[in-house]
Structures are given as C-alpha cells and as structure tokens.
Design a protein that fits this description.
Blueprint (H helix, E strand, L loop, with lengths): L2 H13 L2 H8 L3 H15 L4 E4 L2 E4 L1 H28 L4 E7 L1 H14 L6 E7 L16 E7 L11 E15 L12 H4 L3 E4 L5 H12 L5 E5 L3 H9 L5 E4 H8 L3 E4 L7 E8 L1 H4 L2 H15 L3
Parallel strand pairs: 3-4, 3-5, 7-8
Antiparallel strand pairs: 1-2, 5-11, 6-9, 6-10, 6-11
Amino acid sequence: MDVDQLAVLRELAERGSITAVAAAMHKTPSAVSQQLRTLQRQTGVPLVERVGRGVVLTDAGHALARSSVQIATAMAEAEATWDAYRGEASGTVRLTVFYSAAELLVPGLMTRLKEHPSIDLKVEDQDVSQDDFAALTADHDIVVAHRSDDVLPPERSALRVVPLLREPLDVALPLDHPLGHRASVSAADVIGEAWIGVPENYPLDRVLGAMAAHESTTARIVYRTTHLPLTEKLVAAGHGIALLPRHTSLQRAEGHFRLVPLSDLRAGRRIEALLRPDRAARRAVQIVLEALRDEARTFH
C-alpha cells in the first residue's frame, strides 16, 4: 500500500468529502478519486461507497483509515529521532489559538522560539465553540483550545491533549461599583446585574449559565462579544459587568475596572493544546509545544 493513498483515506474519514480532501491535500478531486480506486483494487475490498452525490467509508475503509494514523505517526517518530540525532529541528509549525490565549501566550512563545531560527512558526487566531476546536487539528499542527471547568470535552481519543493551564475567572466591576471594595462576591450578589457576555456555548457563557442556575434565574446579557478588550472598556464605562480571565485581564484592570473573585463557585477555564498524533511526533512541533508549556507555566 502507498502511504499517500492511505493518507487520502484518512483525510476522507475526517473531512467527509472528496472535494474537501482535494483542497486540503492540494490535489484535484479526480486525482483523489483515482488514488482511492487504486487503493481499493490493492486491498480487494470496498473501502468507500456512494451515498447520494458523495461517498462514505465502509467499515473496512474506517479500519484502514485508523491504521493509516499509526503509520503516519510511526514515520513522524522516525523522522523526529533522526532530527534529534543530527541535533536539528526545522520546518513550518502551524499554530491556531483563540484570541485571549494568543494575548496571554504568543508573545512569550515567540521570544522563546528565537533559540530555534530554523522553525517557521505560523500563527492564526481562531475562536470557536468549545466543542469545535478538535476539528481544527485537521489543518493545524497545534490547536490551543479552552473549555469551562464544569464541562467534559467531547470524545477526543484520536488526538493528543496537552493541558497548559487553568485560568480563574473573576467578576469585572466598574471602579465605582458598590461591590468593588469586596474581597469576593457571590453569584447571588451579582447575577441580577446587566452582563457583557460572550457567544452562547463559549466557556465563559457556560460559567455565567452555571451562576444563573445556582440562583434559579437567568442572566440579563446586554452585549455579546469575543473581544475581551471591548468587554473591559464596556465594563469600565459602566455599561455592565462581566466574567473575565484573571491572568489575561489583570494588567489592563488597574485604574479602569476591578477584578473580584467569586466566593461560592469554582469558576475557571482550562486551556489545552490539541494535536494529531502524527504531527505531535514531529521534532519541530515538539519544540514549539514545549515552549508553549513553559510559557503557560509562568502563570501557574
């Protein structure tokens, strides 16, 4: 079996269409179809079947696609061993990270990677619902994701998951807010306020929902945004209060708004790195991941 043909099968299992596979692998759809037909002839069993205007993998196709992951990982591990032996690590590493984590981690990460000039780090900002981060690993070597404390992640056994840090969430109050002098506040103290929130199903929204459920009510959200600096400005101007990540917002809080911990709920978000196992085996990816972990440790 040809390794490239197996890779096509794996991509079809993850992306769901020949057109998507062709775009991801920089091939034409006809070339992808030809490789699938050739692989099917070599194995002697049906690997795909037509459903409507597209194709889906058979049970045999899924089994072979899983095997292709092991083969790709073994090849990447062999290359990483050789790179380590030669003392070299080079190549492009594609990192995607949600906005506030980028602000927290990427400047220090790039400083650390100055020691590895042969690694070309490509960084992209993407923020999605917490259940959708895993899909981004199809197109990126490292995906920095987040989820709220109280939510179990979707099934991710096909990925390597690396915890980076837990960031507490505090209640952001205007400087003149009556509760601003308090060492902590409870959900009952603040849930009735106007809130600056994030899109539904984002980690901070899950925490605010838990606060509301704790008090058997609903939160009154007057504005939703993923842009934390805008949230901070709206709070500072007195247009509402918000949940903000402590490490990310602390530096900008002084003189503009107050960050007050919650007393009765454990509120936080967990920041993790998600990787395909074959990409996690690459030497250059390992170096970037370790630098990312070192930077995250500075906030523990």
